[in-house]
UniProtKB/TrEMBL annotation:
Name recorded for this polypeptide: DMT family transporter
UniProt signal peptide: none
Keywords, sorted A to Z: Membrane, Transmembrane, Transmembrane helix
InterPro entries according to UniProt: EamA_dom, EmrE-like
Organism whose genome encodes this protein: Albidovulum sediminicola
TM stretches of this protein: 31-53, 65-88, 94-115, 122-138, 150-167, 179-196, 208-226, 238-258, 264-281
EamA domain span: 5-138
Amino acid sequence: MRYGTGVVLVLTAGLLWSGFGLAVRHLDGAGAWAVVFWRSVALVPALMLFVSWRSKGQAMRRVLATGRSGAIGGLCLIAASLGGIYSIQATTVANAVFLFAAAPFLTAVLGWALLGERVRRSTWGAIALAAVGIYVMVREGLALGAMDGNLAALGSALGFAGFTIAIRSGRQGDMVPTVVLGGVFTMIAAALVAPMMGETLWVSTHDIVLSMGMGAGLLATGMALYTVGSRVIPAAELTLLSIVEVLMAPVWVWLFLGETASEGTILGGALLVGAVIWNAISGMRGRVPLTL
């Protein structure tokens, strides 16, 4: 695969993922647990087909081979999925996705604390800048009564960071089998927890179809494209390319629904995105693009 092809695949994945906010806005009224349940119902078989294709029919073996790290990563994805949906329901899409962008920095801190991974000085600087952006948005969320949405978004970012650390600790080269486990665990958790919280999984047909579309159409397809494309793109460049998801998600809801972001969200989001870009650029050590 050529480098340019990989870039197109990763950008397409980001564009697909940026549609989550718009999709959630079109739900009739399904709760977060119902959404993640039906999303996972479609996600798991779609990703299993992808894993089977890549492993020549050894999908189940690949999933089970993730072991304890895969199980931990899958459990972390419950928080990432639930927090992501709830935050979009409880606050603006812009506020939610900008806070999701904190995930790389939370990953860096957890990797340093739990795995002893070295963190570059420029990354520490980017983390400090990101913290300022988070403070601006969370402070505004508190003033506007949207603190729960902000905390859910940060919980989602932390869950994804935990997922990433689990993959690294297990020396896994492929994240997709762990995402499959995350989908299975999410379905089980939703089936157990939703009734205890007075939330039903049997929502309207519209919401079920839309949630399943998010699982198979946006998440699974995007994951497949990202996984294939990332094979020929350095990690720092992947981070830069992934910014398209964060930048486009607020654009879709503004174009189609007229949803706007506050000044505090724009300022805090700009600081966070700037920190991500700064960290990615500083990580580019003049690497030559790889072509296969």
